[in-house]
Design goal:
The chain is mainly α. It contains 14 helices and two strands. It is globular.
């Protein structure tokens, strides 16, 4: 029943993400990040006072759906507009914050629950999220051009031209590269590459959220204490940070698709490892390698979307991809929970995730990558 609330929240975010992406393209990222912080933090504050399951579901459907979707179509596309040459590394560094949260928050939440109670824990987490995420809206800017700058810190050189506001006054132009061609959301949606990318992203989210929601219950069912099981999540969070940054660097060298395939293979291999694992060290090894593997997924998808379709409507385009990610993330935990309720084991759920990752690799291989300076063609 708890996993079902996460599923409903993800589906709500999937429906809202394209709309939020359109709003981010139109109004910029600052307002959307503020909305994300307030609604995400507000979700935790509301949950601290609930007394019935329907309240839990309603909160996730409305508040968490808005909070999550507001960031999905905003953060990744904004980073892609600021960085081109090392887009993978930039996405990895920015998205590493999620790994830091996975490392810190489970331990903090467990401590607060054990020393006080779960309601108090949700209040503290809600205030932290609202304050930290909301304050980030102060530093976000839509693009470097809006500040008279260029992507990657490339120089802008003065030149005289007939369009200067005042005769004789220099204006600045970029010497970095010609403007990139961009596809609209409708044009991108009509391409085979877009559909393949969205489906591959959904399959990865199925696996990722399955583990994030059910690793601790799986560990406690085996016999580990809740406090020890929480440290597995923290190890995964730390490894996630390294995965985002290292695989981001690698993707700038060998390509986004190749780096995604590597991480899919690592994740599938560790799911095979997890099924017979019973020792503490084997769970730590799983958490470290699996966390490293899935770390690259979140930053890689907005990066590859920018490579394929350009930046003009990237918020809306990635909003749809993020919507598919949310749907996959909704189905994964719910499916695993149902499988466990029926079989009293997570093994079939892990096998399902392995098969879906293999399918995801096949989908990635089918994407036609444009050459340098090209864009995926509509149709």
């Amino acid at each position: 029943m708890v996993a079902g609330a996460f599923a409903i929240g993800n589906i709500s975010a999937a429906i809202l993400a394209p709309v939020m992406g359109l709003l981010a393209d139109k109004y910029g990222p600052r307002i959307m990040i503020l909305v994300s912080g307030l609604f995400t933090g507000g979700t935790y504050l509301i949950i601290s006072g609930i007394n019935a399951l329907w309240q839990f579901y309603l909160t996730f459907t409305v508040s968490m759906g808005i909070g999550k979707s507001a960031s999905l179509g905003t953060i990744g596309p904004t980073v892609s507009r600021w960085f081109v040459a090392r887009r993978g590394l930039a996405q990895g560094i920015v998205q590493a914050g999620a790994g830091l949260g996975n490392a810190v928050f489970p331990i903090l939440a467990t401590y607060l629950i054990l020393t006080r109670n779960w309601r108090f824990a949700y209040i503290v987490l809600g205030l932290l999220l609202a304050g930290l995420v909301g304050s980030l809206s102060l530093i976000y800017r839509r693009s470097p051009q809006s500040m008279g700058l260029q992507p990657d810190g490339n120089p802008v050189l003065p030149t005289k031209g007939p369009h200067s506001v005042t005769p004789g006054v220099n204006r600045t132009v970029s010497v970095s590269r010609a403007p990139e061609k961009s596809l609209t959301l409708r044009q991108a949606f009509s391409t085979k590459s877009f559909r393949l990318l969205a489906l591959a992203a959904a399959l990865s989210a199925f696996t990722q959220q399955l583990i994030l929601v059910h690793l601790v219950p799986h560990a406690t069912d085996i016999g580990f204490s809740p406090a020890l099981a929480a440290t597995f999540m923290s190890v995964m969070g730390v490894a996630n940070i390294f995965g985002k940054i290292i695989m981001g660097i690698i993707s700038d060298r060998i390509g986004r698709r190749n780096s995604l395939i590597i991480s899919y293979c690592l994740a599938a291999g560790m799911l095979v490892w997890l099924m017979p694992a019973r020792d503490v060290w084997s769970f730590y090894l799983f958490a470290g390698v699996y966390g490293f593997a899935y770390g690259s997924w979140i930053p890689m998808f907005p990066a590859i979307a920018g490579d394929l379709f350009g930046l003009g409507a990237l918020g809306a385009i990635y909003g749809v991809v993020a919507g598919s990610i949310s749907i996959g993330g909704a189905i994964g935990p719910f499916t695993a929970g149902y499988i466990f309720d029926v079989t009293q084991s997570y093994n079939l759920a892990f096998i399902t995730a392995i098969v879906l990752l293999a399918i995801g690799i096949g989908l990635l291989l089918m994407i036609r990558l444009p050459g340098r300076g090209e864009r995926t063609q509509p149709g």
